[in-house]
């Protein structure tokens, strides 16, 4: 399973009770009411545990975390050492 | 349609006499036709909302039908009891003091809270104090995140971002306070055949700043339609002591003093009021920003935060949900 599918599965299982409904890779978690601020904490905890990705304060922004695609790109960027939105690098 | 030209805080100015009469008439009507209890219990915190709720109840029902409940605990601010006593004295209502520290101790609150804090600050212990604060959404387009501020015995403070589990544990433990207070309010209400008056203002009610089955529970909520600045206007009209009117709004929930705008709202209440009013009346971000001395982009972020909080706290307002409607009338 690739990174994006894993993240998508996490979102579907944890926030949508297993029913993906109309969730696309670009669905906004916040605008569509899928994830609230506690859910963002849950997502960050998952990224840290599953991918050993540390999320800095300034990286807690929609550009990094507000859709399956954005989260996948963010994790990919962190793993490859590329600068992420909100980071100073 | 509200005109947006010259939008100022004046939109929140009300006629205190007229509003007081309107609220009191409604309290009497609700008590007589629906609640059918002989008076009200009001939990007095020494803050502006509970003071105004008590004063309105006295005007509506008479001082002999209102009782004030003061429920401090180990972490309450020192002045809390003095201030709530002062309000009760000014209104001429009897009060009962219930120190809830013993109950909190029995349910393990202090231990549970300290253990949760130790998940992120292992050295936390005797002589330390703490509180939760949020990141300022009005300053940067970030998700709200929660920080734990601790202060050691030498008064040195440090701040750490809270991961999910300690955050949930701290909030869950802290909610004991509001729920235990509400349990005691209903105990006294039942024993006196009274109702419970809740004290949220419009900001708190609209934005879900309350604990479900804690301070969110009540039979009537006489000021839930009033913006906080309007509550202050009524407070002056109703003769609430100046010390209470000049006190900064606090949650009085954590062992370190915590302003409401540190924990929940993105701006001080005067600005939040105006943003909420603007959101409710389709006032553009540009006009709102001009009235507040902010950038339109900041106001747009506050608008977004208002919408998000409405959405995410909706469940706090919901009654228990059924599979199908059950007819009972």
TrEMBL record, chain A:
PROSITE patterns: CARRIER. It comes from the Bacteria. Residues 1-79 form the Carrier domain. Coiled coil: none annotated. This is Acyl carrier protein. It comes from Geomonas anaerohicana. The lineage of its organism: Bacteria, Pseudomonadati, Thermodesulfobacteriota, Desulfuromonadia, Geobacterales.
From TrEMBL, chain B:
Belongs to the NAD synthetase family. It is an enzyme of class 6 (ligase). ATP binds at residues 43-50, 199, 228, 250. Keywords: ATP-binding, Ligase, Magnesium, Metal-binding, NAD, Nucleotide-binding. Pathway: Cofactor biosynthesis; NAD(+) biosynthesis; NAD(+) from deamido-NAD(+) (ammonia route): step 1/1. GO terms for molecular function: NAD+ synthase activity. It comes from the Bacteria. Homodimer. Residues 22-107, 167-306 form the NAD/GMP synthase domain. This is NH(3)-dependent NAD(+) synthetase. Catalyzes the ATP-dependent amidation of deamido-NAD to form NAD. Uses ammonia as a nitrogen source. Its EC number is 6.3.1.5. The keyword Cell membrane does not apply.
């Amino acid at each position: 399973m690739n990174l994006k599918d894993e993240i998508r599965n996490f979102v579907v299982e944890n926030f949508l009770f297993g029913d993906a409904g109309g969730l696309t890779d670009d669905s906004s978690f916040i605008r569509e009411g899928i994830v609230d601020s506690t859910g963002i904490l849950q997502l960050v905890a998952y990224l840290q545990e599953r991918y050993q990705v540390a999320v800095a304060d300034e990286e807690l922004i929609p550009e990094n975390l507000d859709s399956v695609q954005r989260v996948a790109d963010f994790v990919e960027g962190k793993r490859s050492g590329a600068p992420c939105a909100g980071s100073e690098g | 349609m509200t005109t947006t030209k010259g939008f100022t805080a004046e939109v929140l100015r009300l006629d205190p006499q007229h509003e007081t009469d309107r609220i009191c008439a409604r309290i009497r009507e609700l008590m007589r036709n629906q609640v059918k209890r002989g008076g009200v219990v009001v939990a007095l915190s020494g803050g502006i909302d509970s003071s105004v709720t008590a004063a309105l109840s006295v005007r509506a029902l008479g001082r002999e039908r209102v009782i004030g409940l003061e429920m401090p605990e180990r972490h309450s601010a020192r002045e809390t009891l003095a201030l709530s006593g002062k309000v009760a004295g000014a209104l001429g209502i009897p009060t009962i003091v219930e120190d809830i520290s013993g109950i909190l101790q029995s349910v393990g609150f202090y231990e549970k809270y300290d253990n949760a804090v130790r998940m992120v600050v292992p050295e936390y212990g005797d002589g330390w104090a703490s509180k939760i604060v949020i990141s300022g959404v009005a300053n940067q387009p970030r998700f709200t995140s929660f920080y734990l501020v601790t202060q050691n015995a030498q008064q040195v403070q440090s701040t750490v971002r809270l991961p999910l589990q300690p955050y949930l544990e701290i909030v869950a433990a802290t909610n004991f306070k509001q729920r235990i207070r509400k349990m005691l309010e209903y105990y006294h209400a039942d024993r006196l055949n009274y109702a419970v008056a809740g004290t949220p203002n419009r900001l708190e009610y609209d934005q879900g700043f309350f604990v479900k089955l804690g301070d969110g529970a009540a039979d009537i909520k006489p000021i839930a339609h009033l913006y906080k600045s309007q509550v202050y206007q009524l407070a002056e009209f109703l003769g609430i002591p100046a010390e209470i009117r000049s006190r900064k709004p606090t949650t009085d929930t954590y062992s370190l003093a915590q302003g409401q705008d540190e924990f929940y709202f993105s701006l001080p209440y005067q600005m939040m009021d105006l943003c909420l009013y603007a959101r409710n009346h389709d006032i553009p971000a540009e006009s709102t920003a001009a009235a507040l001395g902010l950038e339109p982009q900041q106001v747009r972020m506050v608008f977004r935060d208002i919408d998000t909080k409405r959405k995410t706290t909706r469940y706090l307002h919901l009654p228990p949900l059924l599979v199908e409607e059950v007819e009972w009338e």
